[in-house]
Design goal:
Chain A: This is Sarcosine oxidase, gamma subunit family. The complex is a heterotetramer. By secondary structure, chain A is of the alpha+beta class. Chain A has helices at residues 43-54, 92-100, 122-129, 171-187; strands at residues 17-19, 23-28, 32-38, 64-66, 70-76, 79-84, 104-108, 113-120, 142-147, 150-158, 161-167. In chain A, strand 1 and strand 2 (23-28) form a beta hairpin. The model of chain A has no long low-confidence stretch (mean pLDDT 96). Chain B is globular and about 65 Å long. In chain B, the strands form three sheets. In chain B, strands 1, 2, 8, 9, 10, 11, 17 and 18 form an eight-stranded mixed sheet that branches. Chain B has an eight-stranded mixed sheet with strand order 5-6-4-13-14-15-12-16. Chain B has helices at residues 5-13, 41-52, 89-100, 102-106, 124-139, 149-155, 182-195, 239-244, 308-321, 366-383, 397-400; strands at 31-37, 59-62, 78-79, 117-121, 145-148, 170-174, 178-179, 199-201, 206-212, 215-221, 224-233, 252-264, 272-274, 281-284, 289-300, 329-341, 347-350, 356-360. Chain B has two domains: 29-81 and 84-107 and 182-252 and 343-415, FAD/NAD(P)-binding domain (3-Layer(bba) Sandwich); 117-176 and 254-341, D-Amino Acid Oxidase, Chain A, domain 2. By secondary structure, chain D is of the alpha+beta class. In chain D, strands 8, 9, 12, 13, 14, 15 and 28 form a seven-stranded mixed sheet that branches. In chain D, strands 42-43-44-41-35-45 form a six-stranded mixed sheet. A six-stranded antiparallel beta barrel of chain D has the order 46-49-48-47-50-51. In chain D, strand 10 (227-228) and strand 11 form a beta hairpin. Chain D is elongated and about 115 Å long. Mean pLDDT of chain D is 95; it is low at 5-14. The chains are: A alpha+beta, B alpha/beta, C alpha+beta, D alpha+beta. Chains B and D meet through helix 1, helix 5, helix 7, strand 12 and helix 9 of B and strand 6, helix 3, helix 9, helix 10 and strand 31 of D.
Chain lengths: 188, 416, 104, 996
Amino acid sequence: MHDLTPITAFGLAEPTVFVTQSCQLAERPRIALASVAARLGVDEACRAVITDLLRADAPDPAAWLASDIYSAFWMGPDQWMFSADFPDVEDIVARLKTSFGETASITEQTDGWVSFDLTGEVEAVLELVCSVDMRTRSAGYASRVSIHHTGCFLLIEASDRVRVYAPRASAGSVFHGISQAMTSAAAR
Amino acid sequence: MRYSGFKVIKEALTGHKGWRPAWRDPEPQSHYDIVIIGGGGHGLATAHYLAKIFGQKRIAVLEKGWIGGGNVGRNTTIIRSNYLLDGNEPFYEFSLKLWEGLEQDLNYNAMVSQRGIMNLIHSDAQRDAYIRRGNAMILNGADAEYMDADQIRKEYPFLNFDDARFPIKGGLAQRRGGTVRHDAVAWGYARSADSHGVDILQNCEVTGFRIENGKCLGVETSRGFIGAGRVGCAVAGSSGRLMSKAGMRLPIESHVLQAFVSEGLKPILPGVITFGAGHFYVSQSDKGGLVFGGDIDGYNSYAQRGNLPVVEDVCEGGMALMPMIGRARLLRMWGGIMDMSMDGSPIIDRTHIDGLYFNGGWCYGGFKATPASGYAFAHLLARDIPHPTATAYRFDRFETGHMIDEKGMGNQPNLH
Amino acid sequence: MIINHPLLGPRDSAEFTYLGDASLLNRPDPDTATPKDWHDYAYLRDNPAGLHRELWFHEGGDRSWLVVTRNTVTHEITKVELARDVARGLASDVAGMGTKRSGG
Amino acid sequence: MADHGTNHGTHHRTHGQINRLSGGQIDRNKPLSFTFDGKTFQGYHGDTLASALLANGVRLMGRSFKYHRPRGPLTAGSEEPNAIVALRSGAYQEPNTRATTAELFDGLEATSQNRWPSLAFDAMAINDRFSNFLTAGFYYKTFMWPAAFWEKIYEPIIRKAAGLGALTGSADPDVYDKGFRHCDLLVVGAGPSGLMAARTAAEAGFEVIIADEDFRFGGRLNSEHEFIGDQAGADWAASQVAHLGTFSNVRVMSRTTVIGTFDHGIYGAVERVTDHLRTSAEGQPRQILWRIYAKHTVLCAGATERPIAFNNNDRPGVMLAGAMRSYANRWGVSAARDAVIFTSNDDGHRTAADLHRQGVAIAAVVDTRADAPSAHEYAVIAGTTVTDTRGRLGLNAVQVTDATGHSRWLKAGSLGVSGGWNPNVHLTSHQGARPVWNDALNAFVPSPSLPPHMSVAGAAAGMLSTHGALHSGVDAACKALEIDPRTLPALPKADDRPVTQSAFWCVQGSERAWLDQQNDVTVKDVKLSHQEGFRAVEHLKRYTTLGMATDQGKTSNMGGLAVMAELTGQPIADVGTTMFRPPYTPTAIGVLAGRSRGKDFHPVRLTPSHYWAKERGAVFVEVGNWLRAQWFPIEGETHWRQSVDREVLATRSSVGVCDCTTLGKIDVQGTDAAVFLNKVYCNGFAKLAVGRTRYGLMLREDGIAMDDGTAARLAEDHFVVTTTTANAGKVYQHMEFVRQCLCPDLDVQLISTTESWAQYAIAGPNARALLQKVVDAEFDISNDAFPFMACGAITVCGGLRARLFRISFSGELAFELAVPARYGDAMMRRLMDEGEEFNVTPYGTEALGVMRIEKGHAAGNELNGTTTAQNLGLGRMVSKAKDSIGSKLSERVGLNTEDGLRLVGLRPLNPKDKITAGGHVMSAEGPVNAAHDQGYVTSAAYSPTLGNMIGLAFIKSGSERIGDRMRLVSPLTKTSVEVEVVSPHFVDPEGERQRA
């Protein structure tokens, strides 16, 4: 076991939280992420593996779903992002490679993204930061969105709960943008 | 009729009865020596110089709507000659010199105002590039001045020096740059051309070219066929549409560029400023409006209107650079069709069709080029050889690899 | 503008970046093309006032390249396809079809 | 609480709402104190600044632009040209604000504009005396001699007179938000038609947004004395708003102006959140720009009353008759205790009746129509016109002239003018559709070719009766949303009087009759414009400035068109109309920018070692959106050069570490990965062995160098490609283009991993020694096992997965070590700890730049988008054995000339001389000008290794000029030095160090 200590994107040991009267934005550390892209010509086989792992069909465009171990969202044609709460997040690529074999290209993404959970009255906040329509989108929706000029992924878990994956290097700006919107929404 | 202060006073005292139309409204003749298609700034300037400088007779300018209604009537009025490349700088410097004598040449006050233009620098690489550019300008006989951040702060104290995401590190100034009352440029050239016998034919749309045996004999128009010895096309954003009638495909795409003006404000901005870390440039008009713009919308369009993302992008740049303008109000926005070329530089050249000449590809820089473009096009039309400052503006430069690419963006017009 | 993405449905065009005429899909055959073919491919455009087939990249989305058929006068969008599908169609077209130009 | 610069010190009460009538939708239990030009007044909650000032007997509120004529409000809405003031003070001062829409709040502070020394006495009013000289376009005809005088004398005078209000020069202290909303139906305007459209859609279950610029919904219903069913119109409107409030699928947005129609159903709307408040809460936006995505839109924007032009029709006290009615009915205010009404239609009579009911004396109703209806309560003078007015700072008399030319003066402090109503078609024409002339209404109505999915209802569609408005609102919603109208309840009874409008624009013989009141465009100016040939609508507008003022011509364009039509003998429809463009009303630039200003202009990207570098006192620099450590000053260093020189020398003599995470990293996988890279790089990649890295040059299709980087082959089907920091996004997009559009049948997958890995360059003779202390023992990184350009997956510090690349930008023995980003901080600290024995030195982007220049590596300054592989001295890299992007067009003759630019090095002959990046290179002898230009310096640096400045330059035939003496000039920075052309590889040209 190595002896290096990880830090968050904010340079801290502990996750960051921001709270207003109506919302909470909380950083969620230690979520393992890996992208899975079907190899050409074997996408059926790849999807079969996904079905096996998720116990459901591979997520459609603009969708995500969860099983007991993995959850996955659609990133692009024949491409998904898998996530899992592993005790040792370093495992994810190795595990997925074992499952997918030669049917998919797996790329480590754990450190590329910082995940935030926004909970509470999220509609009033999200309408100030990105174009997703919380009135017509429901749980299970996943999409890349632009928050504070930064491409993020947004997953709707419930009408009062969304997950945001922000690129690690600009996670501070994304957090800042959302928290400003939370303050603004709370003041209205 | 000569315009003068004396004339204005005389007319004021006699009920303004003596003013005559600034240009005639003649019927088209069946044949002209030279027909210019496009009654915009470039077309009218071409006619003026053809008649006045190159001694040509029997000239007509054909305009499908009303003159000055294209980009000369919808730009942000900036003149400058701060170009980098040898193919461009002498031409734009020639243009600036023509601007400097324009009012006397035309007997029309187009309000050429050399209040200076400043390109701001925000990074070391940008500084290196601007120093190279400033040197190229000076080596070509133009003026350029390097300013450090402190000097800029003295002249423009309201710029964001203390809270900037991309701090101002310096600037390249051209004091001879400035602004011109854009509509008056079209009117001044039209009035002068008309006084030299040029027929300005409004509401005369070209619907086709008559081409026989590789030679252009004239144009079909909404007012009938008009024969011509030579036909010069100067229709900017409509270049693709027009030249397709002659069977030509061009190294040009038409894009929309939006421009903006604020409500009138007391003078606060002395010169033209260009933000180097965002898409924003601004000047203040003699009426007090902040005239500003930014990037093109980025997609092919003939619609003369743009969309919100670019409006926001420009205003973001404005607020980042000059946070005092937050409470000023945007009064009007509009769009012009830009003839974006494949290397960001124009074309003034013969076509492969005898007697058919082309002037276009001005991107969003056509206004400042108006006098030199007209002069150089007149030179080409009258003498059949390019003007010395415009020799690089050839069609075949893309075949030979002699692109004139100021921004280094390659064959993608919306990036120039 | 709103682009009706074939997989994702309506998306704001601000999420996309624009490249230009979809004829850029028709890259000349390196074995047979003449210098003029390369010049025409890289530099000449129909630039129509009307229907225009053009390439957009969904940078703020699924990273698909799309072929969008849009009217350059009204901005109306009449067709949106995945560029990859179009490109595959071109590749499998019989000879000659692949070099057909777009636009109206 | 933020202080909005309002006046809240004075609570000296003034009594004197001498023109306050009874009634109105104001709260008399909430008196509000405010100041205008320093004088304190009182109004009520529900007032606008204009209504409150009028109540206090103040008619004079502004001065016109050109002639500085005294002006009072013409209207009661956002179309106001005259009553324009500055609101608040200090940095919060807001110029050019309409008193007619500014909501009164306690402590409001307003100041008049464009006058000196005071509003009542304005020295610049002298212009009015010279108006005969200052006609339309006079400035184009004069100020030309002598040439130099224009800019030195004339223009400064003109400029000084420019503008109405002033900016303070201070940063806007407010914050603004931007947001997105989506709906099935957007209803623009909450008058009778808008309320019905919204209600109809709401009850059918659709997502509805209804927006109105006013703070009170109801539109004209708030201004009229009329009934809907058995309710007063204003009460009915309030009950409808309350009803809409019960629906969760309805969003009611008051104080929200829909400013523009954009493509495909996107609307811009500005909500004014705190403009009506004295102060705002911390973090509360002043305004919000909403981008509303509407599947359907019903435009219910109402109509704007149009004036009639007659001599001196611009005095304070002259108003649109409908505005007078608004003041009387909605605010319980009149401009004076007596009034004359001048009308060409029945609507003027409505004003007379309402004013009379409120106790205002009606001196007469002057009706242009010979068959004008009569009234019991007041005199109607049929077939007459108003021909002149009197009153220096406010109206006191009106001249009335009958058909025979007989004139008389009527005393009155207010004059209501009604020329009929123009539908507010603006949003229908934002996409280019021109409104069409309607003969029955004598007005322009919306074009039949509306923007897709938009319909128009109510007065905006020309339905000028309340009954028509209610019905058309319902109809529009039903049609848009396919609601069956038979399912709907019957509508209440409403005013259904037929509305006719005559075409009466201008009283015969008028000259000094204002069309555009703010810009001082008179009938005479339009005549002059016509006389000089500026007859096209756009020429008229541009020549006279008609309609170019802050009111955007809402009350003036029609009159100008009509006068021009009369002069040319054409019907108005043939003269045409000018285009309406966004925004519908002038919009604060701040709200269009939102939060993207100051430090939040762009997002910030931080490297994994950022917090560590900050601790070390690093100086940071913006590189795109990244913040990178530029250098790391240590104690005693006072100049950046000291730090940079030290970092370079320490690296070259022992070992240095630099965070190079910002380089783009693209993961390329698939069985065809090598084939694919062979296509995008001009040099070959097919045969690159697993475990090896290769430098690659990417060309654009036009043959110009686009980017360079490395590709490391981690497995047969797996590469990691690096790009320059600046081009990471662009290269990824390009590679996706090649993958999806040009090579759709290759098995290759791409994904960016830039931020996943913290990547550190470890460079210098002790680089290996340092690395060996952190790389786990099972990985042999000796020169034999891990030679120059090797790469591989390793573990460090006891099992952390990592990647190691033996590549060198500095020219030293160097490695790049990548670890998962969250361990980047710890990894850097570990390298510093373990490197202590080697005096390990962190270095920043400056030292990185110095070392790459010393080594002659091209970077962004050299890859400037115009340079070819040949220019860079890499011509041989372009493989002829295969096709790659750009290879064919790179062969063009112009890109391959004998005397083409080549990358060389420059050193000053005098070691103390400066090499200036951006300097131009000339022959040693001969003229210095553009014609003799030999090239330019792309990059320059002081080389602590060599002890003098060095530069990289592109010089014509450069590779044949090594050893030549040349001159480097930079006239811009006033330097000229002698230089020697040398190899660009200043340090270790044989590359022995990096292979060590």
